[in-house]
Amino acid sequence: MTKINLKILAHELGVSVSTVSKALQDSYEISQETKDKVRSLARKLNFQPNPYASSLRRHQTRTIAVIVPEIANNFFALAINGIESIAQEKGYHVLIYLTHDSYEKEKSICEHLQSGRIDGVLMSVTTETQEYEHIAKLMDKGILLVFFDRVRHEIETAKVTTDDFVSGLSATEHLIQNGAKRIAYLSLSPNLSIDYKRKAGYLEGLHKYNISQAPELIVECTNNDEEAYQRIKALLTSPHRPDGVFASVEKLATIAYAVCQELSLQIPQDVKLICFSNLKIAALLSPSLSTITQPAFEIGKEAASILFQHLDRKRASIPNENIVLKSILVPRASSQGETLMI
């Protein structure tokens, strides 16, 4: 039986081998009608392209890297699923690199990837990242990079995020409208773009309702769970403890739950709570957790789509662009109170 190859497909369709190859790679140079004809015949003849051979011819690895702080965080797990949904369509492998929120680990990974073992990078930076020379050096090697969620605005490339400022404002406003008058903000790291914008939204919410901002109510936690626990405990045992808490990330909210349990504080009667979270069990917590739910899967999918768009077109760089996807406020029992008419 004759082995089906690109030449046979091209002969059957009356087009060039190059056209068939590009159609199978979903190239922007080929019309959708031609792509459909090529794919239809390929399926009919049970043709399976060899991605490794084509990669060698084009000097591509057909592999991208995803650099994230952690995967225990539900946001990143969902974002990676979104990334892989696009990578699979494109016939690419995905390598996941965990920085464990360490700048030195992030730097080491970027230096490792400079060898050219990957075609592109999707990246969310660590809580410790202030310098970005290692990222610039990686891009100088001709490796395309797209940021998602935690971004560095100093780097010229595409960035996919959610509406952190607007959502931060909405979260604060929600607590105020449910009776909270003294609202704390739990920060993960002032180095993070997401933290800065969410805090700015929180401050705008206080200003909008003529509530004085108390510096002691902005608590800078760390990625160390025990240290964060002690800082939140100190906040909730202070003489003028807050009656509302806005946590910038889900981990700080779950720690706040544990602290309230230790201190016998009732949520939401004593402390109302809301946070950014993609926690699947948020509705099952006791009480159920009010969240700003991010479109995590869509953020990962959009970041990957942008990267592959430029890989397909063999671009040397990606233009600076900010893509913002909207998050949704989901009110649950943890923030409920007597709704105020303001």
From TrEMBL:
One of its GO terms (molecular function) is DNA-binding transcription factor activity. InterPro entries: HTH_LacI (IPR000843), LacI/GalR-like_sensor (IPR046335), Lambda_DNA-bd_dom_sf (IPR010982), Peripla_BP_I (IPR028082). Residues 4-58 form the HTH lacI-type domain. Keywords: DNA-binding, Transcription, Transcription regulation. This is Transcriptional regulator, LacI family. The lineage of its organism: Bacteria, Pseudomonadati, Bacteroidota, Cytophagia, Cytophagales.
